Amino acid sequence: MKKIQAIRGMNDLLPDESPYWQYLEKTVTDILRRYGYREIRFPVLESTDLFKRSIGEVTDIVEKEMYTFEDRNGDSITLRPEGTASCVRACEEHGLLYNQTQRLWYMGPMFRHERPQKGRYRQFHQIGVEVFGLTGPDVDAEILLLSARILRDLGLGDWVHLELNSLGSTEARKTYREALVAYLEQYREQLDEDSQRRLGTNPLRILDSKNSATQALLKDAPVLTDYLDPESREHFEQLQALLDANGVNYTVNPRLVRGLDYYGKTAFEWVTDKLGAQGTVCAGGRYDGLVEQLGGKSTPAIGFGIGLERLVLMLQAAEISPPGLGQQAQIYLAAVGEVQSQALQLAEQLRDALPGVSLLTHCGGGSFKSQLKKADKSQAQVALILGEDEARNGSVTIKMLREDKPQQTLSASEAIEYLRAELQP
Asked: Tens of pLDDT along 219-249?
């Protein structure tokens, strides 16, 4: 019988890898809490129309990458390829936007059917941050300071660089689009196949082409920043002044565009050269027209998404080890002889008294020597040994596994105090 395996591009997360994810999630969500952002959760399945109307029907995501199917009612359903549209839908549906300010975050899997490669998978995970109801460059700056702090607190501040651009208003982009198309039409035959197709559908995406010949043609192409409307230009200048005042280093990249149609004004990416082709770690921007585009009242908004798989790859490349990596528990309780009942009781007593400490109880019997081998393999800091003598006397033997300290036998209450001093922060 053929073995059933995971779907290509949808990966299992094994126990040896999970400490990186737990460290990431805890660090990021703690920072978001400190900034006053609140969590929102929404389904992984949405109506296909949500993404067609928000992302744009002629984008690569909608045309080629979405997991879309009909359910039993004949409705077209899509696994979410990104989180912003779902967040807007949820907020609008539940009345969270009109005449209100919201600072929100979410976390979970997204789905895109593209060729899997290192750092890019068909099921990938993001932490998304969205702010609604604020128009000024001050909140744009806060978003960038927040993302900078996340990367810095993870120890990755020196591994990334901020690229910044303004996409201007809808009218400015339309004028620029016409100028760009007029320029590129002269070189249509020299463009790569994808860029030729985008020339008639989504020409701004050509600026993001990875084809070296196309990039060479773009060197003399019109630049979006030359077409900015006065309001967008002033907004962008004020944002840069705020970043300068707060010591945030960045590069203005006039070729930077976002892959989704709903972005306007501020656009940004945190990029790295440590992951090969997959250089974008965190990206986002303003999308002031999206709420209205989806049927709500006009609502200014800005947000970003962080790819967790890429952050894990960077942590590993930077040799940043999360606390407890490889450790199953801090304490390993060895139960030698007919003491299973007393061992389980002692373990529960210790868990009650030391809530911040992890404890693994040995089950399945075995010799004293074999149990100590398992204690060592678990990477525990302490082995507690409960034999028949200790069980009769209400005591336990403590053996430090990572420090050269003498073994000692203490009463249960004395052991608790000793372990509290040794293990709890």
From this structure: 888 888 888 999 999 999 999 999 999 999 9
Comparing 22-36, 139-153, 221-235, the range with the smallest average pLDDT is 221-235
What does DSSP assign to residue 211?
-
Residue 225: name the closest of 240, 214, 245 by CA: 240
- The CA distance from 61 to 48, in Å, is 12
Q: What is the pTM of this model?
A: 0.89
Of the listed ranges 60-74, 152-166, 239-253, 325-339, the least confidently predicted one is: 60-74
Q: What angle do CA 100, 103, 107 make, to 5 degrees?
A: 135
Contacts of 296 (CB under 8 A, 6+ apart): 88, 92, 97, 98
Q: How far is CA 285 from CA 97, 137, 168, 230, 375, in A?
A: 18, 11, 11, 19, 50
Query: Can you name the residues that pair with 397 across neighbouring β-strands?
Result: 385, 409
Count of C-beta atoms within a 10 Å radius of residue 424: 11
Pairing of strands 102-111, 38-39: parallel
Determine if residue 199 is left, alpha or beta; phi over 0 gives left, psi from -120 to 50 gives alpha, anything else beta: alpha
Tell me the C-alpha to C-alpha distance, in Å, between residue 195 and each of 60, 201, 208, 218, 384: 12, 10, 10, 11, 65
Q: Tell me how many degrees the CA angle 301-302-308 measures, rounded to the nearest 5.
A: 140
245 CB-side CA count, 13 A: 9
Interval 160-171: pLDDT, tens: 999 999 999 888
Could you tell me the CA-to-CA distances from 15 to 230, 324, 332 in Å, in that order?
A: 53, 12, 18
